[in-house]
Every structure is written in C-alpha cells, then in structure tokens.
Amino acid sequence: MSLNTLSLKQAKEGLSKKKFSSIELVNSCLSEIKERKNLNAFITVCVKEALEEAKEADRRIKDEENFPLLGIPISLKDIYLTKGIRTTAASRVLDNYIPQYSATVVKKLKEAGGIIIGKTNCDAWAHGSSGENSDFGPTKNPWDEEYVPGGSSSGSAVSVAANMSLASTGTDTGGSIRLPASFCNVVGLKPTYGRVSRYGIIAMASSLDSIGHFTKNVEDSALMLSVTAGKDPNDATMPDKKVDDYENYLNKGVKDLKIGIPKEYFSEGLDKRIKEKIERSINLLEARGAIAEYISLPHTEYAIACYYIIQPAEVSSNLARYDGIRYGNDRSSFADEAKRRIMFGTYVLSSGYYEAYYKRAMQVRTLIKKDFDDAFKKVDVVITPVSPTPPWKLGEKTSDPLAMYLSDIYTVTANLAGIPGISIPMGLIDNLPAGIQILGPHFSEGRLFQVGKAVEESGL
Amino acid sequence: MKINVKHVAKLANLPLSNEEEKKFEKQLNEVLSYVEKLNEKDVENIEETNQTTGLENVTREDINTICFAQDEALSNSKKNHNGMFKIPKIF
Amino acid sequence: MKPVIGLEVHIELKTRSKMFCGCSADYFGKKPNTHTCPVCLGLPGALPVPNKKAIEWCVMLGMALNCKIPHFSKFDRKNYFYPDLPKGYQISQYDEPFCVNGSIKLSTGKKIRIRRVHMEEDTAKLVHELGNQKSTRSTSSGQEIKNQKDEGYSLIDFNRSGVPLAEIVTEPDFDDAKDVKEYLQKIQQIARYLEISNADMEKGDMRLEPNISLSKDGKLPSYKIEVKNINSFRFVEKAIEFEIRRQTEILQKGQTPIQETRGWDEAKQKTISQRTKEEASDYRYFPEPDIPPIRWAKSQISNLKSQMRELPKEKFKRFKKDYELSDYDTEILTRETTIADYFEDAVRIGKNKNIDAKKIAKFIMNRKPSIEEVLPAKLVRNIESATTYVNINEEEIKITVKKVLKNNSQAVEDFKKGKTQALQYLVGSVMRALKGKVDPRVVIEAIENELK
Known about the structure:
- The structure holds three protein chains of three kinds.
- Chain A has helices at 8-16, 22-35, 47-62, 104-111, 154-161, 178-184, 218-228, 272-287, 303-318, 336-349, 355-378, 401-406, 412-417, 445-457, and strands at 42-45, 73-77, 115-120, 167-172, 187-190, 210-215, 258-262, 291-295, 381-385, 421-429, 432-439.
- Chain A is an alpha/beta fold.
- Chain A has one domain (3-457): Amidase signature (AS) enzymes (Alpha-Beta Complex).
- The longest helix of chain A is centred in the last third of the chain and has 24 residues, at 355-378.
- In chain B, 33% of the residues lie in helices and 8% in strands.
- In chain B, strands 1-2 form a two-stranded antiparallel ribbon.
- In chain B, a hairpin with a 2-residue loop joins strand 1 (80-81) and strand 2 (84-88).
- Chain C has three domains: 2-126 and 157-295, no CATH class; 310-390, no CATH class; 392-451, Arc Repressor Mutant, subunit A.
- Chain C has helices at residues 52-64, 132-135, 177-193, 233-252, 298-307, 312-323, 327-334, 337-351, 357-367, 376-391, 394-407, 409-416, 420-434, 440-451; strands at residues 2-12, 72-73, 76-79, 89-92, 99-105, 111-121, 125-129, 137-138, 144-145, 153-157, 164-170, 206-215, 225-228, 260-265, 270-276, 286-287, 294-295.
- In chain C, the strands form five sheets. In chain C, strands 5-6-11-1-12-13-14-15 form an eight-stranded mixed sheet, covered by helices on one side.
- Chain C starts with a strand and ends with a helix.
- Classes of the chains: A alpha/beta, B mainly alpha, C alpha+beta.
- Chains A and B meet through helix 9, helix 10, helix 11 and helix 12 of A and helix 1 and helix 2 of B.
- Strand 2 (84-88) of chain B pairs antiparallel with strand 10 of chain C.
C-alpha cells in the first residue's frame, strides 16, 4: 500500500512507530500530485518547503515529540493566507499576491506539526459549485475526468480523493465543502459558524463563511477539527465555546438517536437513485437502533432565493478592497462570476432596493433558521441529500448561472442557519460518488461524527 | 424590476465592455426574477437575521500589538515612493 | 433670506490603539505606513475587532452632549470607493448609532439639537504631488531636471487608517457663523474635558463639515452645500460667510445653487466645487457581519456616567458657588482643565495658610504664572510673601530700619566694609522687630536706601 493512501490516523501511527519517515510520506504525495497533474487540483505545490519541513518533522519525531499532525502533509484551499507562499483565491486579481501573514487556522495546523504540501485550486473567490470558475482552469473529478469534482473547494476535495494529501482544508459558504466531498467520495465537514476562525481566510460572504475540511474518513475529520477549532481573539464572531473531545463521539453508536427526514428535501428535482441510496442508509441506521421520522422544514423552498441575495450582497462589499493599490491587480481582472455577484450584490443593497431584497432576505433567513430550531427540539440530527444530482459533465452548466446556483439547494440552508453539516460518502451511482448530508444543531459536531461513523460502518 | 447594469457596474467600480453589459444584463435579470420568489412570503413583523451566533458586545481592550515594518506593508504594492503607496494623481 | 446650517464634526479619539486593530492610533508625524497591520491595510482575510475604550468614550461624549443612549446599537458598512479607504467600505453606524437626540446650549440661550453621535474609522492620508511644476528640481550641478510626462501622482500613508472617530451631527439649527464657532469651541472644550481627544483642528483631530443653504420662507431649502477642508477655527467663519454671500447672489438672480460638495481654499479665500450631485454616492449600508451588535445594560450606562469627568458646565457652576468667583473669573479659570486643576490645587494648599480662593484666582489671572514652572505650592508661597508685603506699611518699615541701624552701628560699619554677614544680621533684626513675615528683599532694599 502506498503511503499516500493512508488516513491521518494511520499515518500518525506509522510515523511515531518509525515504520516510515515524513519525507517518504511527503514524497509519495508529491509524486501522486505529479502523476495526476491533469486533474489540476493544485495552484501551487510547495515542494521545497514541504520537504524541508518533513526533514525537520522527522528529527522531532526521533526526539519523541508528539503533536497531532506532526510530519503529515496537508493541502490548503488557495483562499487560506500563507505568509510567504502565494495565495491567489484562484483569481487573476491575486495571481502574484504573497501574503504578509498567515490565517489563524494555518498557524494552528502548523503548530500541530502539519506540513503544507500545496495550495489547491477552487472556483475563484469560492464562487461556484463545480470548480469551473477558477482562473487557473477547472479541476477534474478523479473518478471520471469528464465530470466536475464539485465546488467551490474542488482542488481540496480532489487532493484528498486522489491521495495527493492526507487531508485538506476548504471553505463552505453555501455548500462548497459538502458538495465536492459528495462528488469526490470523501468526508467533508462544514462546522458551526464561529467554531473555526475565519481570520486570514479570504472572505466570501462573512455571515455565511464556515471553515472546514476534507478527510478520508470520519475519524480523521474529528481529529482535524480538534486542531482547527477554538476561540481566536482576531475573529469577533466566535462564541467562547469549549472545544469538545470529538474522538469520544466516534464509537457511541446511534441507538435511540432521533433522525429527522425533512420531506422538502426529497421532493421533485431529486435524482431517484440518490433518494434510494439515502433511504437505504437511513434503514441501515435504523437497524442500528436509530429512530427515523419525517419532519418538515417549511421554508426550504425560499432558501436559494434568500441565499442568492445575502451572499452576493456580502460578496460585493468583501471584494471592494481589491483595487490593485496595496496588492494584486486592479478590478478589471475579475472574471465573469465574480463580476456577476459583485453587481447583483451591489444592486440588492442599492438605494431603493435594500428593503425589497436584502432586508426581506434577512427576514426570511430568520424563518429558515427557526425551521431548524424547531426541528432540533424534536430530533437529534437531520439527514438529507447533499446534491440533487450526481456530478455533471464539465461545461454542462457554465453558461447558465442560475442552473448552477440551484445545485446548492440542499446545502445553503445550513449556512443560512449557521448550523454544522457533514457529507459522508454513500457509494457510487454509475461509477460516480454520492454523499449523504447530516445536519445538527449549533456546536453539535460531535454528534455529526457519531452518526457519520455509523453511516461509514454500515458498509456502503 | 430590471437591473441597470451600467449604473450598477459604476457603483461597483467594475469596468465592463458593451458585450459584457449585454450578457450580464440577461443573466442578472434571470437571477433577479428567481429571487423575487421571496415576495410570496409575508415577512411583516419578522426580525432580521444578519448573524447567527447570538453574540453581543464582543470587544477588545485598548492595547497595542505589533505592526508591520514599512517594507512589509508595501511588499505587495506595484508602485511606492518615500514609504508610501503611489497611485495616479487624484483631483 | 435666512441661512440654514447643520454641522458634522469628526473628533479623533486618542485611544492607544486603532478602532478595529491593535496598531498605535498615534499617527501624527510618524514614519509612513509603520502603524499598519492586515486589518487597517485592508488585507485579504483580515477581520475587525472593536476597541472597547473607543466605544465607551463615544458614549461618554454623547452623554456629555445630553444624548440618549439606546440599549441596542450596531456597526454598519458604508460602501464607497476611494484610494484612502482600504476595504472599499468604512465601518460606521447607520440607523442605530450609539447616541441620539442630544442638545447643547449656546451663550445666547439658543439650543442646538444634536441628532446623533456615532462611531466610525478614519481613512488613510493622501498626499498629492502636483506633477510638472513640482517635479522640476535642480541637481547639485545646478542642472534642471524636468519630466514632461509626469502628470503628478498621489501617495497614501495608512497610519491614520482605522483611527477611531466620533462623528457628531447636529440638526440644521444654526443661522449664523458666530454660533457655529461657539458651538465648535464648546465641543472642543468638552472633548478635552473628557480627555478623549486633543481636538486640535490644525492637527486634524477635530474636523468640521458644515452644510449650508438659504431659506426664503423659513422652511428647509431644497438643496444644501457641504463644505469640506476647514481645518482651523479662523476658517470656519470665513467659509460660512463666503457661502452665504455666494448663495445669496445666486438666489437673487432667481436661480437655485447646485447641490454639491465644496472645499475651502484658504489661499483664494473662497469655496471651490469638489463634487456635484450627479456623482453623489449610494453608500449601500448594511449591518457589519463581522462585528456582533452592542447591547447595553442599564448598569453599564450608569457606570460609564459615573466614570465621566466633570463637564465644563458643571465645573463652572461649582467654581462660582464654592469659590464665590465672578462669571468672568470662572469662565477663564474653567476654560481648560489644566488651569482649573492648577487653581484648585493651589486653593487646597492655600487653605492651610488662610489664603482664600478669590485671592488665588486674582493672582493667577493677573500674574498668569507658567503652570509648568510654578508649582501650586510655590504659587501659594509667592502669594504669601506678596500679601505680607502689601499688608505692612512702607513707612513702618522705614522707621524700623532707621531704628535698627542706629542701635547697631558696629554692624553697619562691618557691612560698609563689605561683610555680608553683617547685612544678614541687620535684616534679621528688622524682621524680628516687625514681628511679621516680610519679604527680606524689601528689607534689604530699605536698608540699602537708608545707607546710600
């Protein structure tokens, strides 16, 4: 077995038992990156730095130092600022930007011993559901290169799915972690809003952005979160909430756990094969003692409309700083999708339209959030599809922005409500992956790992 | 309702070509008519949610932290002069 | 036609750190771009965290201006593009500011209503270089270098970016430039009393934007002219008076002035058009998603109130009552807290020596001692000796001196021979004979006169 196919946990064990070195591990990832260059998963590969850090990690391992990610190669969505390493947001605007500081999460990963192997491709500014909006070319699905890997954190999902790194970070503003996780057959976690610091990560829509990651399994996802989560004084939107011991949840099982199945997520538009797969997963959970019941999240139908007002509004303001004076190129370098969102957001905030669009969207957001608050009084978790369809072909939706937006239909609600969600692989449909989404109340990541582990163990 | 792309692009400080204006006008108006779905919903007396954390009163103490050195601050600028960012004359 | 004038005053707070980051807010005269960080440079990914002290000071300022402090308040983004605004938006407050509905009374009894006091962040500083004329320079060999293609450029220093600003907005209640000046002096005095700002107009700690229009029928006019770049008290009156004259002329021709922003040009002694209404901005305000709102408990507000320093009005009243001073004396002594504090320190020391406050007040006003050099205790000693001297009749000193000299001929002889100890002996004898405290210098003078 190649070292790059190992899970975090396995790699950590192997490294500390000196079965192999960090250099060997890093090299096996680097050669995979080279091997599958055509997937276009990376914008920048940090060969030299990663090997230097691996050498240092091996020395520290020899000294019996013990850190959760010591010597393990991890990739970062190229929207995480890395001091001294080019960070582009996959946009020409930042094609030469060398950050003067690192994101809090990057610092935490490094403090935990992690090695940054490279910066992954994504939809520019995280705008997109397919990965095709990158100014550095689209990322391809490793399961079938004619298909999209899902976006916006496309390269991150692919880097884990194709064993180019052992874990990868992403951002999820409307599904940008869960959707590519589902399309690439990896575990993707979108934590509670405010669980992980946003400081130093290029903002898309500030009230929706959630900072998460991709791993090969649920256990690794829990391990990653225990490194990245926790209060950062530089981010004022983080509740001072204790970080759970997530590993404790992994083997709790699902006996007597109440699962809500929102009927609005299983209506027309959902691919029949996905529906069947989810039903089968729920049956398997029931077989393990879970109790499933149908529930209603009545305002689901407004979610996309609500999201596509709030999100572009915040985008239009967050992208205003890119004027080419202090860094980067000027505003003519934005590509189409960013221009569309900036203009749409500018419009909904402009004089005379604010009340009709932005204010109304914030009111509907209250209703969507309340749907979940009410649901979680009755059930412990909610289970839904991640995407209404399996992955689509490259180019299929690029000329129809609205069709692309509608693929976020099952994921945006969690961002509007600020709740955590996880996408767990549930097998293949016509040789392409599909994921199942588990949603929980604020700060219930432990419970998501608990249920996710059970789904994983159901043997799909 | 229809979006005046020219006006919005000016507000957003985005230079657009004529072709772009046309293309975006069509696309943006499609999205606009979709989001007008929200008009179906009666939202009277419903509070607005612009943050989901429920947090209030998050502040920091009035303490100094370390700043960038001048060359660090300027390190990504295309043009600078006498320790300042240089841009074409305004006014 | 009656002028209708409203004012927006920006006060830069003298907190240690900036409004949303830990960079030093003390930017004046510092090396450019050395007080910057990801937040105030508007780097990607940076997030603001508000300065608690700045918020408290803003609320105190509001309370000093008799404002109500709403229990709920929030920050908003004001979106516009300008090279001095690094994020492309300014974090400010739109519909729920920290302080609302205040007022301030002028000496004429006129009440100026204050609409709101809110918190925002300052922009960076732009330096404009003119191009051809300015880029012409001589080399050491005397040769002139002229760059024909140089169209001029602007330079940006972000040290000021993000420094906390409190903005005070009045209703359009002024109708004359003198009232505006008095109002500004009052605002300046209050800010200094609270010790929240140096409020120095020349340094830009206090900035003023009047909007001026003329009303024919007492109603609010359909247009207004905003004037910027007024950076001294001297210019305030001149700029307003110029605008009133300019607008009167236009209106008299039967036209309406164009709504616009104008700037005061001190060299030309007039206002100059800067931006017309066609380009007027649409700020697209929306609630700042990066900063949770502020909610005050009643106890927090009363706690802040109790921490507030005494305000000019209160101090004036107390001085008049406690020290029985005239309005005029009180006004002068309370104009600045440094003088008021100095006076009160001296009063405290003087009390033990039976020197009353009035005497100290008069002494300070007549002698204008340097308060840095003459400490209050020294001031009191000076008053003591001066007082004693005044109380003793000059004639009495003369008689005593004569008597002492007559009875101490040996000492007089010694003194004439140049023995300084003899003089000390003689002075001592005179002082003893006078039983009181006499300024020894006066005695020496009298002895010398007598022996001439």
